[in-house]
Amino acid sequence: MLKLNEQDFLGEANCFLSEAIMEVGEVIQFYDSDKRFPAWGFGGKTFDGVVSHCFNLNGIPNGSEVEGVDGIMAAYASALHNVALSGPTLFGPVINMAAQIAGQSLSHDDRSKYFVLLIITDGVLTDLQETKDALVRASDLPLSILIVGVGGADFTQMEILDADNGRRLESSTGRVATRDIVQFVPMQEVHNGRISAVQALLEELPGQFLTYVRPRDIKPCNLQVV
User: Crossing angle, helix 92-107 and helix 128-138, to 10 degrees?
Assistant: First the structure.
């Protein structure tokens, strides 16, 4: 899932985005049986001229899925030529979309899937509380969210979402998240040689996965990560 925003950012974004998707995707794709991934953009004036914060990256109105990691990259390249970049940076709609898909698997009584959402963004959130609300709701679902921050923006809010301080997120109604489902990594630190992108993004995923399956007594032998 990609954020399209700011024309002078595109060259850097293409480089960092390719690195993040290829490296993380090469690991995660082996846990997906059909290698088909939903790909969304947010922060853009879409093919129909409407500013959207969750649109199908491939430009197909009734289908967001693409074939493999190469399909994600191809859809992104196409979107750059067909979508006008626009702000602000809103995470709520795309998190809710991913949560809806994860929730649908449960509504069909299918507990064999666990979902991973990768968000790549250069912007500072303008819907922090709405994002918190979405994450608190999603904490009950088979879903983890990996966020990559690109560029030199102030990503303090992303650290809040990550909840590495041990305090779980709280919604606007006072509900506390069931578990931590977010991992945030600034690409600037990756390129400064401080951390490995794949290692940093995926290091909390096994623990997040276990905090979901263990209380529900879900056996991992037949589980798929999608």
Answer: 10
